[in-house]
Amino acid sequence: MKKTLVALAALAATGATLAQSSVTVYGRLDLGMSSVDTTLGTNPATDAFSLAGEQDRWTGSRLGFRGSEDLGGGLRAGFTYEIGINADRNTPAGISPTDNARTRLANLSLSGSFGTFVVGTFMNAFDTARGFSPANNTIPGGQFTQWQAAAGSERFDGRSQNSFAYVAPAVNGFTFSFGGGSEESGTALKFTGYTLNLNFTRGPLAAQFAFGDLDMDFPVVADMQNIALGVRYNFGPVVASFLYEDSQRDVAGLRTFDAQSWEIGARFPMGALAPYITFGQGERNTDDIDGWQIGTTYNLSARTWIYAAVGEAQRESATGINVRKESGYAIGLVHTF
Q: Which domains does the chain have, with CATH numbers?
């Protein structure tokens, strides 16, 4: 259950005080069990198994704070601060800034009739487009378009850091956003980039398109482009979805990475029960990739649900030799507050 607190803080070091503001405290915990077998080439499969201690197989465990203040004249300021937590270890998630997990979200926003400006760390359009899939990206075969790349350096992550964005107000179901970001002084990576997002939602139809371009100067000179498209239509007894993603990377003017993939999915809402199935195919450079996932969620209440899923993703060379194969399952319990 979300709880609203009245927070009053004082900056003792400066003697300045903060005005009262309404703050919402929220969170989510995900715990369960899972098993994933990974086969690389002709090597024997390795098994990663966790019993009653596996976390974040369906969603990231987190603790967050968000609030807003009416500035008058139709202007409103807002903030969000969210951290990932290791629910089975009672420690903050992440051991370094590169894993993008210790601080999930940290941003300030200013909104009005003109739209919304946001700065900091926030979710971007690629996360929204991939989220049209009913499957889960941490279980083999889920949100298949993400599996096309070997690392985040070859595709856009769903979270923008050290960035800004403008989100236009919706008009007849249409809205768009534009954002950009760059490296911070003194960091190992040196890059600048931007993202563009188009969104349409009306009745049973929803669609999201995202485009991103990233120029890197160090440690290598590289240019990365990524597009993602997500479409979902609610037919009533069936919610159908389609995802497409295209990722390219050029290093010193030479194409070093080129991947395209698609995924179709269907969810079948049956009251508290919502089974689903997805299937995807694509190409990664000269390799072929495919994957599938079958699973279900069951709502125990408005804030608590259980999940179970099984899936597989495989990548083969042009000659049919296995490059990488993952198969596994996960069962868990999620609670939000």
A: 3-336 (2.40.160.10)
Q: Which two tokens mark 96?
A: 């370094």
Angle made by CA atoms 243, 244, 250, in degrees to the nearest 5: 145
Residue 24 identity (one-letter amino acid): T
DSSP 184-252: PTT-S-EEEEEEEEEEEEETTEEEEEEEEEEEEEESS-EEEEEEEEEEEEE-SS-EEEEEEEEEEEEET
Which two tokens mark 332? Answer: 């868990």
Residue 95 DSSP class: S
| Cβ pair 45, 327 in contact under 8 A | no
Burial 192-202 (b: 16+ CB within 10 A, else e): ebbbbbebbee
Rounded distance, CA 221 to CA 224, Å? 10
Q: Which residue has the tokens 């009416």?
A: 70
How many Cβ atoms sit within 10 Å of the Cβ of residue 44? 8
- pLDDT given at position 95: 43
Average pLDDT over residues 305-325: 89
Task: Report pLDDT for 158.
Answer: 74
Report the distance separating Cα 283 and Cα 259, nearest Å.
Answer: 5
Question: Which residues pair with residue 264 across a beta bridge?
Answer: 242, 279
At 126, is the secondary structure helix, strand, or coil?
Answer: helix
Whole-number average pLDDT of the chain: 82
Q: For residue range 10-52, list pLDDT tens digits in order.
A: 333 334 444 447 899 999 999 888 888 888 877 766 766 666 5
- What is the C-alpha separation between 194 and 190, in angstroms, rounded? 14
Q: Which residue has the tokens 């201690």?
A: 53
Token pair, residue 289, equals 């990739």
Write down the residue that tokens 């139809």 correspond to. 205
Determine the Cα–Cα distance for residues 227 and 245; give it in Å rounded to an integer.
6
